[in-house]
Amino acid sequence: MFGLGWMEIGALIVIALLVFGPDKLPQAASQAGKTLRNLRRMANNARDDLRTGLGPEFANFDPADLNPRNFVRKHLLDDLEDDWNNKPRELEPATTAPYVPEPVDELGYGEVPPYDAEAT
Prior knowledge:
Blueprint: H1 6-20, H2 25-54, H3 68-84
């Protein structure tokens, strides 16, 4: 649970008992639970409003993709994981011929390169 072990959870309970006392701890826990539920409800409503406002083009939009770490993981590392796991990917057929550079005339020793008066 949240990366906490039993020792950390026990320490948090002891600290909560010391801060709130045994008689007010249930009220504080109830208040914290209500606040968490309200925050979740507000976040879900905001996400739904954003999706409806963006329209059908962004139906599968996930606000978590705006986090740079998730963006990199989704768009860059998924391809690397496929390669690492030796999963074959479908390759698109080549539609154009490979690029072949044009041959360049090389200047000999002592030759002056061409000069373009309009370029300067």
